[in-house]
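Q: what sequence does this backbone want?
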């Protein structure tokens, strides 16, 4: 388990939904009032949310990166792809969410020597990127964002900058994957001392991991996985350490919820 003593204090409680915004069918943002989470969350941290406050079914919480914070309010982005997320996506203004957070560790924006932050986003992997963008802007680090989705209606573009869009169906921007689009920039050498910050489907992050190794640039990935507790008790979200990390630390696995969700790509097996 990670060193919990260095992590942000965690709180749980009912939070009233103040705004629901539909991006596309089954894809919504939910803004809720929670001063502790809004003021304590750092870029890349997440919350664990019950699909329906006060209900015993579904029982397990779902993890969501904090999409945005403003004043005493925080926001998550929800894509309905199962019963729990389907219920959550239908939450209305004035209803209550049972929210635990903030959880996990933030993006490691101070950990590498880089001059350009490359945000590589796939689908709802966008969830932690607006907060990351804001933090990088405050540090005055140039940002280039490579955002891929199945079709143009699934983009959530708020709070992002310097966008290069890619769609699987060719309906917007580059026709193909955002990883291939990024490759074309790296091959031309048009990104000065880049570091990749990646979040999206597993296949995309494996491709990002390989791309970073090929070009010899730092890469950090934020993992998306199911978890029940979010605080390291249930041991339900292990990620396999790369062999050299295991040999150096004696730890075969780390937990996404407390050691992550962000990891250096060369240190784990995706």
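A:
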């Amino acid at each position: 388990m990670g060193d919990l003593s260095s992590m942000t204090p965690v709180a749980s409680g009912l939070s009233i939904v103040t705004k629901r915004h539909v991006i596309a069918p089954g894809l919504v943002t939910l803004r809720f009032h929670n001063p502790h989470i809004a003021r304590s969350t750092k870029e890349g941290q997440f919350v664990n949310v019950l699909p329906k406050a006060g209900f015993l079914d579904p029982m397990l919480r779902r993890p969501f990166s904090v999409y945005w914070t403003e004043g005493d309010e925080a926001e998550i982005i929800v894509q309905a792809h199962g019963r729990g997320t389907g219920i959550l996506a239908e939450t209305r203004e004035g209803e209550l969410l049972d929210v635990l957070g903030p959880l996990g560790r933030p993006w490691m924006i101070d950990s590498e020597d880089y001059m350009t932050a490359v945000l590589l986003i796939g689908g709802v992997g966008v969830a932690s990127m607006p907060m990351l963008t804001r933090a990088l802007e405050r540090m005055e680090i140039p940002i280039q964002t490579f955002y891929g989705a199945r079709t143009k209606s699934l983009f959530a573009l708020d709070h992002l900058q310097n966008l290069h869009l890619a769609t699987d169906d060719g309906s917007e921007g580059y026709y193909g994957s955002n990883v291939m689009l990024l490759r074309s920039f790296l091959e031309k050498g048009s990104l000065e001392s880049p570091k990749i910050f990646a979040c999206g489907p597993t296949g995309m992050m494996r491709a990002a991991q390989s791309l970073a190794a090929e070009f010899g640039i730092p890469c950090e990935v934020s993992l998306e996985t199911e978890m029940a507790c979010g605080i390291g008790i249930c041991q339900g979200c292990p990620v396999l350490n790369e062999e050299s990390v295991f040999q150096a630390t004696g730890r075969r696995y780390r937990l996404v919820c407390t050691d992550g969700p962000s990891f250096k790509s060369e240190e784990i097996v995706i």
